[in-house]
Please model this.
Amino acid sequence: MKTFLAQKYKAFVATICKWSVPYFLRRNQLDVRVSQECLKELECLNKSNVVILLNHSDRFDPLAVAELSRVAKEDFGYIASREQFDAFNGLQGWLMQRCGAYSVLRGEPEDKQSKEATISYISQSQRKLVEFPEGDVTGRDDVILPLKQDGIRNILEAQQRLLKTGESEPVYLLPVAIYYEVQKDGIKAMEKCLGRLEKRFGTVQKHLSIAARVERLVRSLIFSLEQVYGIKSFGSRLDQRLLSICAQIASSIATVNGLPLSQANHVDSLLIQKVLNHSKPEHAAEEVMIYLHSVRNQLWRSLKTDRNASTNPESENYEAKLRRDLLHRKKILFGELDKLEQLLILAHSVQQEVTTLNHAWRVIDRLEQEITGKTTLKGHRIAYIESGPVLSLLQFMPAYRGSEDGAISMVDDSVRRKILAVLKQMKITHAVA
Model:
């Protein structure tokens, strides 16, 4: 099992995959509409070093970006989480690599191979690199969450490398926003889905509003998690309770498997205190998400060590048998960590009050995945894609040479403000329409 998977871009494979995008859009009842201004901006940036930075509110964002690539008639490079490459017995990863994607193992320690691949790609490639700098699906379209600091540092380092080689060519950042709009048939489909989920808990309440029904479902979900795992959630808000559950389970997985992260005493208690006391809920969720990714990261790396166990049960010694059994248990735990990641995304989502159909759709969709293990169609949606003003990293380099952290903070603030401004304008535009 390789930790890092490099891109193996093949134009022919990328073209074939793009041909299939309209089929998957129809299958998922999604219509993607890219603004002409966005397409013109992409064309103007041809043959430049460009990183496209998008918000990540929805699980269909990658499909929307694939349609952007098809409509723009341009192949991009992509950075994607390592676990995505193993889907469908590795077939998904094979296609992703040949469409220009490479992997990153999130969390700590930093994936140095992916870091170098990112810096080299930006400073050498003629194809634009696509990133979701928030890192994970957020479920929110009211804020842009803090960007991954390592990701920004890598982009700045790519610009620095260009300057050191005598190249004055800037690295451009193109902020892009994706905004989803639920269509009329979504209301009835969402209500049907809510009814199916409520039956799982025996709490069908069709007379309540969608927002009230969603809240009751989340509370029922939390109660079930507490009963099965034998733990107690903490906090007055639903997101706090979900985050505290995730922190406790992730800490238990780290401790039982003897991962380096388990050396920190009472790590779950420390995380819970941050969740309860942090002035910004989205930052508290980020703390737990980083810890979860670090647990997955360490578990992944430990699998490589454990693979030297004998594959012949009859000839192996006792120590080899223990290692083989441990390897099997660790593989199973990846499914548990996937569940925790879905719960964390749900926690992010419910930090935003459910007042719009667009947000309700995402929360219900996440609940359905968690409760039933699958998702169903919930009406048609339109995904609008619009770009914001281009940023040149050259303007940040004097600050970067003086203080890396200071420059990273400046880039973070600039990118987030520009994406959010575009997102807010799109809401106004399409609400009027």
In short: The mean pLDDT is 90. Strands lie at 30-34, 49-54, 77-81, 101-104, 129-131, 171-182, 381-387, 391-392.
